[in-house]
Design goal:
Elements: H1 3-6, E1 11-13, E2 21-23, E3 29-39, E4 48-55, E5 58-63, E6 67-71, E7 74-77, E8 93-95, H2 96-100, E9 104-107, E10 112-115, E11 118-124, E12 127-134, H3 137-144, H4 147-150, E13 158-160, E14 164-166, H5 172-183, H6 188-197, H7 200-210, H8 214-223, H9 226-233, H10 238-245, H11 250-259, H12 262-270, H13 274-284, H14 291-294, E15 300-303, H15 308-317, E16 327-331, E17 337-342, H16 343-348, H17 372-381, E18 386-390, E19 396-401, H18 402-409, H19 414-417
Parallel strand pairs: 2-7, 15-16
Antiparallel strand pairs: 1-11, 2-3, 3-4, 3-8, 4-5, 6-7, 9-10, 9-14, 11-12, 12-13, 16-17, 18-19
Helix pairs in contact: 5-7, 6-7, 6-8, 10-12, 11-13
Length: 424
């Protein structure tokens, strides 16, 4: 049953349970309710599994099966006898007041952080379950006012529980199992934005949650700013940092290595696979503000007398990201740059024809020492999405893409500054 359907049912707010009376089956007051415990169940609405209560000055655990009714300001036992137990967290359990209320949550559908100002429960499938959170100011206001007045204030920005994920710092089984499947649906840049907007502990939870997927973790690190990258690798060993770098694009890996403390750079680099190590060391030799420091060494090039079929086979076998394959570069017998072709032109051409017979573009190129202004001007003047970088012998050594230029041009934190990462 969708949470939007439960809005017509009786909705019980957490604030009306907390501090309420704990009474026996005859209505005699025994103590008060301190917190409500629920068990997370994948994408479902988590049921109440118990309560933290205080009786005679002692806090204890009350299992849900010993409760007859849950009402505003009152929880009633099903039996007169009260059997209190010490509380111990079970797998996938969270405390709504301690772990969720007034804490930040991940709004997965909106890819932003929100604050739970109120928690809403509804009776589904025979028992009370969490159906949503109120992230608007009215949710907080109703809790500040006396309950007889606050209870009359309508909820504001209601979010279906199915669209949010809680942080549960003291429940590692929840943190590692639940977050990843939902977060994995977001773009790495959205996950990185969440990490940067979160506290250190919350950001660490997100990083740990996606860490079971090495490629996704690397993609997220590529999108993080340098400060957060270093923050989250500081406690990792050199072997662990090298393992992360091995899944990153060489230019992004080199940028991260350059940000490491000097004493760690060579030990980390030495632990990379030989091919990745050569690329990273080569990139570290260039000024990061020049074409050599901006470029990626990953591109597809073929001899100009190759056939279209051979070239397309090279593209298929390259293993490079899609964005690196939009343009194929040509070289002569001495490995000198001989122009470029768009992938679309290759797809339209006769497979048996030679690529040199196609409409090869003699695109302008950069040298590794070209400063950023020259790079940006050339790409803007010639409307390039990628510009080849050649060494002194006219051999292609890398490519600067338009996103490399945009990363330098746009101010840090621009996504949040321009409202792309909302805050509630």
């Amino acid at each position: 049953m969708a949470a939007t359907q439960t809005r017509s049912e009786a909705v019980l707010h957490l604030s009306l349970i907390l501090g309420g009376a704990l009474v026996d089956s005859d209505g005699a007051r025994l103590g008060k309710v301190d917190d409500v415990i629920v068990r997370l169940e994948g994408s479902g609405y988590p049921p109440i599994t118990g309560f933290l209560v205080t009786v005679a000055g002692r806090q204890a655990y009350l299992p849900a099966e010993r409760v007859a009714t849950v009402e505003p300001r009152m929880v009633t036992l099903s039996k007169a006898k009260l059997d209190l137990r010490p509380f111990s967290r079970r797998p996938e359990e969270i405390l709504l007041k301690h772990d969720v209320l007034d804490h930040q949550l991940i709004n997965v559908e909106g890819a932003r952080l929100v604050r739970a100002n109120e928690i809403e429960l509804a009776r589904l499938e025979g028992w009370w379950r969490v159906v949503g959170v109120d992230t608007g100011p009215r949710g907080g206001l109703r809790r500040l006012l006396p309950k007889r007045i606050g209870g009359r204030i309508a909820t504001g920005d209601f979010l279906d529980w199915a669209s949010v994920e809680p942080f549960a710092g003291e429940a590692p089984a929840v943190r590692l199992r639940v977050l990843h499947p939902r977060l994995a649906k977001l773009h790495p840049a959205q996950i990185a934005d969440l990490v940067e907007a979160a506290s250190h502990d919350e950001g660490r939870q997100i990083i740990e949650a996606v860490g079971s997927d090495a490629d996704l973790e690397a993609d997220v690190f590529e999108e993080l700013d340098a400060r957060h990258q270093i923050e989250f690798v500081a406690e990792r060993s050199d072997e662990e940092v090298a393992a992360l770098l091995s899944h990153m694009a060489p230019d992004d890996a080199a940028d991260l290595v350059a940000e490491l403390p000097e004493a760690r750079r060579e030990p980390v680099t030495e632990r990379l696979a030989p091919s990745q190590r050569r690329k990273v060391r080569a990139l570290l030799g260039y000024d990061p503000a020049e074409a050599g420091g901006l470029m990626s060494p990953d591109f597809v090039s073929v001899y100009r007398h190759a056939t279209v079929a051979e070239t397309l086979d090279r593209v298929r076998r390259s293993g490079l990201p899609d964005e690196n394959l939009a343009t194929v570069y040509l070289m002569d017998a001495k490995h000198r740059f001989a122009g470029s072709l768009h992938l679309a032109a290759l797809l339209r051409a006769d497979p048996e024809g030679a690529v040199i017979d196609l409409d090869v573009e003699d695109v302008p190129h950069l040298n590794p020492e070209a400063d950023f202004e020259e790079v940006a001007r050339l790409m803007a003047d010639y409307n390039l999405i990628a510009a080849p970088v050649l060494d002194s012998e006219e051999r292609m050594i890398g490519v600067v893409t338009v996103d490399d230029v945009l990363e330098v041009l746009l101010p840090k934190g621009w996504r949040r500054r321009f409202g792309l990462l909302g805050e509630d």
